[in-house]
Amino acid sequence: MLKKAGIVAGAAAGLLMIGGTAFASPIHTTGTPDPTFGDAYATFIEGGGALGYGAASLVAGAYTGIATTPALILHSLEHHGH
After folding, report:
1. Hey, CA dihedral for 10, 15, 16, 17, is it positive or negative?
2. Where is the signal peptide (predicted)?
3. What is the per-residue pLDDT across 6-47, written as a single tens digit (0 to 9) for each?
4. Domain that holds residue 33
5. pTM of the predicted model, to two decimals?
């Protein structure tokens, strides 16, 4: 299960990195100015924090689910008299 979670997290990270370049591209047709270095740096730092939080949440949730599922199943069977 953790292997699958790692693959999903890696794929999501890759898509986020590829998709981020589309938003960083300057748009000259609408008159929007090119982003400054400060803007790009702030966006990079903010995105990295969000990516780290998301990955940590995914791993913590998977670990918790794996650790508690057997006990939940046993409790459910016990409760229903099987």
Report:
1. positive
2. 1-24
3. 666 666 655 555 555 555 555 556 677 788 888 888 888 899
4. 1-80
5. 0.41
